[in-house]
From TrEMBL:
UniProt-listed InterPro entries: Beta-barrel_TonB (IPR000531), Beta-barrel_TonB_sf (IPR036942), CarboxyPept-like_regulatory (IPR008969), Plug_dom (IPR012910), Plug_dom_sf (IPR037066), TonB-dep_rcpt-like (IPR039426)
UniProt domain TonB-dependent receptor-like beta-barrel: residue ranges: 397-861
Gene3D superfamilies, per database record: Carboxypeptidase-like, regulatory domain, TonB-dependent receptor, beta-barrel domain, TonB-dependent receptor, plug domain
Organism phylogeny: Bacteria, Pseudomonadati, Bacteroidota, Cytophagia, Cytophagales
Domain TonB-dependent receptor plug residue range list: 130-251
Superkingdom: Bacteria
First-listed, main subcellular location of the protein, grouped into a coarse class: membrane
GO CC, any one term: cell outer membrane
Source organism (scientific name): Hymenobacter luteus
PROSITE patterns linked: TONB_DEPENDENT_REC_3 (PS52016)
SUPFAM superfamilies: Carboxypeptidase regulatory domain-like, Porins
Protein name, UniProt field: Iron complex outermembrane receptor protein
Length: 933
């Protein structure tokens, strides 16, 4: 090395060592933050969590306030910027942004926390969650959505609220495309859904073939983008006196985001461990300022969900391809050059694509008038399937020069869902007046592909427009309210009126989707196989109007005792009037203990869809398809059967609860309830031609309607539901991070108190032939034991520095139902026992830079599935009158000349969607970038 380079190298080394030593002796400048936290009522708030986040490095420092509401975090890096988050249960989280700290100079923050009020179950603007007279779950979607694997609202709530259940259906026609919901074990249409406190329209679909919500009309919560939601409030108590029809089990109120700045971009994707069910979601949210105090919040997203299939394996006793004779099946299969793998039945989630948009607007027009509006639109394209049409079971519907070996029909939907709300808030002295109008529409059109109309023979197309359903709702509302602060310890009075108008239509399909052309093989089935189209004779359009008036008073008798009363009167132009009332109270026994209770009466008007719906459906039986007609109560078939007009369901709900808050960080609530429902609307059993001559008029009406059997909606049962909800939450600083624990549970049981059976069908209900009951075994079991008997959710989260870890454990309790009885067997069907299952989710989140959060996780870590349907049959019991499945199998072979094929479709549809999803383990990634921090 030349001398000059040697000297330069030595000099550079000396300078570097000198700089390193000097830096090692220098202590980085530090700073401190401190301050106090109190409520907006001037009360100090101990045990409040304070988190300081250094955005350049992501370093987090956490502390909690002391008994005087004071906090201090020393030895922090000087400079910034910092974000400081202050959180306390029952109060709105406060966020301080763009904070810079000066070295050796404490920065003091005096924070006032506004109470986190609830908007459901009360018309007071200052009522907090723990002050509520009835139990309310509040789900913070901002905090939850970036972490959990679910993105659909129904699935998010299913994995957060134990009393709420929603599982995706499979091979259930329209129910494959719209997830039915259940609260406290009741039907989907016995829960009311609000958005920003305004009534949401229902879907146009009636659940018919699915396991959950049979015969009911519910809400399609997945039409709303979850990224547009600030929080969801689930009121677990009857509230018909406050909100009107449907609020028997409770109310779900969805609050949209109202930010006037910032926003986020959310990207989510995942796939099952089986390699199917790929999902993708891109969602954008942006808040805009309108004037000085107004806002416009916009959300748009697009998502995709791939189809899934789980372990189908054809069995010759259930769904052979060519023949029920084993040797003939083997020979014909070999000659075709196919295997059973070529006839795989899709049996899991349907393929789904969504485009959604939501807006939420508020703008003061003056000091005393505020304009507000919100709404949204969802387009959904769904692709599901029906069971294969095969030579063994439906040879007449095989067209040799189109699908010579059979075909699997695809039942597809195009759903358009739109809503808009506009209203004004007026300040009239001490009074407030809220005027609003809500319009909502849901349209669901079917198209069937990969199928044919076998009565056309070789001239049949393979795609059909099958018609659809449409429901429109308009609601006008006026509400006056006023808080009298000096009346007792504070009294709120509210009264108002509501006008609602519903319209329902069935839309006809193209002729080839339903018509019998008589050109195919003998006994060929008319219409599109898999889903027969709506023909002109079933199309219908009808309307209903009702007006209502209500009044409620919430009085704080003392600061420790609150009483709430509500009265409501409604009149329907179709069936008359309903009067409901509610009384609720909460008493603070001690600083940390309160009791609450409520009694209310409720009602649910029959859905216009239930009143008007009619359709012929092809049921896929092992001996070929059968035409089953659902006839409305205005039809000639219903008149011939002696089925009366539908009347409203009426309910009585009593609840009692305990609220314990030993420390601000720990909360326990226990709430027991009993819900009695009279004249509950159910879908009747299937009645075919009567061979005894007891019902000749019904036989003639069925023949005229070209139906093999008939079903009706009827006020068939009085039920009683009893249960217990328990919620324990704990949030506190542990070490240098924050620990979040929660345990929530629901225990639930429904029994039939009385069955209402018309005299002409009394003999069926007591003839010891369960297969042809007026209300069949399956329908009754879905009501009583078709929802999980218990459900527990244990959530453990820990935030430390840039990382967050969340583990959730789920316990899905036992479900017991009778199997389908498509063939109308006199002995009925197998009783299925799906045992309890436990699953685990694990999530890790990382915040590498300002505003960015990355999440990776596994849903159902241990790949747990619900019981296989055959296992559920073994755990259950054989059809009535048989000691075992083996004994029944012998009887079946002797009686029907072939091996037993129950439970139905045990080979091609091995799982039923009862307590939990059917997809197994699921890996997912999420990324959220927050704008405007």
């Amino acid at each position: 090395m030349p001398p000059i380079f040697t000297r330069f190298f030595l000099l550079a080394t000396w300078v570097l060592l000198s700089f390193t030593a000097a830096r090692a002796q220098t202590v980085a400048p530090t700073a401190e933050i401190n301050g106090t936290v109190s409520s907006d009522k001037g009360e100090v708030l101990p045990a409040t969590t304070v988190v300081a986040i250094h955005l350049p490095t992501g370093i987090r420092r956490t502390t909690t306030t002391d008994d005087q509401g004071a906090f201090s975090i020393p030895a922090m890096l000087a400079g910034g910027p910092y974000t400081i988050q202050i959180a306390q249960s029952g109060y709105r989280t406060q966020l301080l942004t763009n904070v810079f700290l000066v070295a050796d100079k404490p920065s003091r923050f005096v924070t006032v926390m506004p109470v986190a009020t609830v908007a459901v179950g009360t018309r007071r603007a200052d009522r907090t969650l723990l002050e509520s007279t009835v139990p309310v779950d509040v789900i913070d979607m901002r905090e939850l959505l970036p972490l959990v694997p679910q993105t659909d609202l129904t699935q998010v709530l299913h994995h957060v609220v134990p009393s709420f259940n929603s599982t995706r259906q499979t091979s259930a026609d329209g129910a494959d495309h719209v997830d039915p919901i259940s609260l406290r074990g009741l039907a989907p249409d016995q829960t009311l859904v609000l958005v920003n406190g305004k009534r949401r329209h229902t879907t146009s679909l009636i659940n018919l073939l699915g396991s959950r919500g049979l015969g009911s009309v519910g809400y399609d919560l997945n039409t709303l983008p979850t990224n547009a939601i600030e929080r969801v409030e689930v009121l677990r108590d009857g509230a018909a006196a406050q909100y009107g029809s449907d609020a028997i089990a409770g109310v779900i109120n969805i609050n949209l985001k109202s930010d006037n700045h910032g926003g986020n971009a959310l990207l989510s994707t995942g796939i099952t461990s089986a390699g199917d069910g790929l999902t993708g979601l891109l969602s954008l949210n942006q808040g805009l300022k309108l004037g000085k105090k107004g806002f416009l919040n916009l959300t748009a997203d697009a998502d995709y969900r791939g189809a899934t299939t789980r372990r189908p394996q054809r069995d010759i006793a259930s769904w052979p391809v060519f023949s029920y004779d084993a040797e003939e099946e083997r020979q014909m299969m070999a000659a075709s050059g196919k295997t059973y793998a070529d006839f795989e039945q899709q049996n899991g989630d349907a393929k789904m694509r969504n485009l959604r948009g939501v807006y939420n607007l508020s703008m003061p027009l003056s000091e005393k008038i505020r304009l507000y509006s919100f709404g949204g639109y969802n387009f959904r394209r769904g692709e599901a399937v029906a069971p294969w049409v095969l030579p063994a079971s439906a040879s007449a519907d095989i067209v040799d020069d189109i699908f010579p070996l059979g075909y699997q029909p695809h039942i597809n939907t195009r759903i358009h869902d739109a809503s808009a709300v506009a209203g004004f808030d007026f300040t009239l002295g001490q009074w407030n007046l809220d005027l609003s109008h809500v319009v909502g529409r849901n349209q669901m059109r079917y198209d069937v592909t990969n199928t044919l109309n076998s009565t056309l023979g070789s001239a049949s197309p393979t795609e059909f427009e099958a018609g659809g359903l449409r429901f429109t709702q308009n609601v006008s509302n006026a509400t006056f309210s006023r808080l009298f602060p000096k009346a007792l310890a504070g009294t709120n009075v509210a009264f108002g009126a509501e006008l609602r108008h519903d319209r329902y239509s069935i839309l006809a399909g193209e002729e080839a989707s339903y018509f019998d052309y008589g050109k195919g093989k003998a006994d060929a089935s008319a219409g599109a196989q898999g889903f027969i189209g709506f023909d002109p004779s079933t199309t219908i359009s009808g309307t209903r109007r009702n007006v209502g008036a209500f009044a409620d008073v919430e009085a704080d008798i003392t600061k420790q005792w609150m009483v709430e009363t509500a009265l409501r009167f409604e009149n329907y132009n179709s069936f008359g009037s309903a009067f409901t009332y509610k009384v609720a109270s909460r008493l603070q026994l001690a600083k940390a203990v309160a009791v609450r209770g409520a009694f209310n009466t409720g009602f649910r008007a029959p859905a216009l869809q239930q009143v008007l719906y009619r359709q012929l459906t092809l049921l896929p039986t092992s001996t070929g398809p059968k035409y089953s007609g659902i006839f409305n109560n205005q039809s000639e078939v219903a008149a011939a059967a002696g089925i009366g007009q539908l009347q409203p369901e009426r309910s009585r709900n009593i609840s009692a609860g305990l609220v314990v808050t030993p420390t601000p960080a720990l909360t326990l609530t226990l709430d027991a309830y009993q819900i009695d429902i009279d004249d509950r609307i159910l879908l009747s059993g299937q009645f075919g031609q009567d061979t005894t001559g007891a019902r000749p008029a019904l036989n003639q009406a069925l023949a005229a309607a070209n139906a093999d059997n008939a079903q009706f909606f009827t006020n068939a049962a009085d039920t009683r539901t009893r249960g217990l909800d328990a919620v324990v939450t704990y949030r506190n600083a542990v070490g240098r991070g924050t620990l979040n624990l929660s345990l929530a549970a629901n225990f639930n049981q429904t029994t039939i108190r009385t069955l209402h059976v018309p005299s002409q069908f009394q003999a069926l209900q007591i003839d010891n032939k369960p297969g042809n009951n007026y209300i069949d075994q399956r329908q009754l079991s879905l009501v009583t034991t078709g929802n999980p008997a218990s459900k527990l959710i244990l959530s453990t989260g820990y935030d430390l520095g840039k990382f967050s870890v969340l583990m959730r454990n789920f316990y899905f309790g036992r479900v017991q139902t009778y199997d389908f009885n498509f063939d109308g067997l006199d002995e009925g069907s197998v009783f299925l026992d799906f045992r309890a299952k436990a699953t685990t989710d694990l999530t890790v989140a990382f915040r590498p830079t300002k505003g960015l959060q990355l999440t990776a996780g596994v849903n159902n870590v241990f790949n747990v599935y619900p019981d296989h349907i055959s296992k559920a049959a073994r755990q259950g019991r054989a059809p009535d009158g048989f000691a075992s499945l083996e004994q029944y199998g012998q009887y079946f072979q002797q009686t029907y000349g072939r091996p037993v094929n129950v439970p139905y479709d045990f080979d091609i549809l091995p799982y039923q969607s009862q307590q939990m999803p059917l997809t197994g383990r699921y890996f997912y990634l999420k990324a959220v970038y927050n704008l405007g921090l």
